[in-house]
Design goal:
elongated
């Protein structure tokens, strides 16, 4: 069994999100479509990483007695949201690949969702065990 800490899994995800957001923003500033494409690829990699974590049952949820939601449950929710981001990124990627009409709007929607996920994982990492 592969033993990976929650901090390691969330740290990798946070860095992929940060890199994707940075590439998309820098691509918009410099008007380079290749950098925007690189940011979308980072989000796709994050989605496949989340899919691997969810399908391999790497994170086990402990039984809780109190009313608090455990850190593990929050991280699983984050990875499920990352799968949603991957789905929206695939649609945005295909729109930009075929030069469809609302490709910039779709990239901005992807960017907004990625920013929400970034702050979600930052807040999860600040929770004490």
């Amino acid at each position: 069994m592969l033993l990976i800490s929650l901090l390691g899994l969330s740290g990798i995800s946070q860095m992929l999100l940060f890199l994707g957001i940075g590439l998309i923003l820098f691509g918009w500033i410099e008007k380079k479509d290749k950098l925007i494409l690189g940011g979308q690829i980072m989000f796709l990699i994050l989605g496949f990483f989340a899919l691997w974590i969810l399908l391999s049952h790497t994170i086990t949820i402990p039984q809780t007695i109190s009313d608090k939601i455990s850190k593990e449950s929050r991280i699983i929710g984050f990875f499920r949201s990352s799968l949603l981001l991957m789905g929206i990124t695939v649609v945005s990627f295909l729109m930009s690949l075929f030069k469809l009409r609302f490709q910039k709007v779709s990239v901005s929607i992807v960017l907004i969702i990625a920013l929400m996920l970034f702050f979600m994982i930052v807040s999860i990492q600040q929770i004490a065990n």
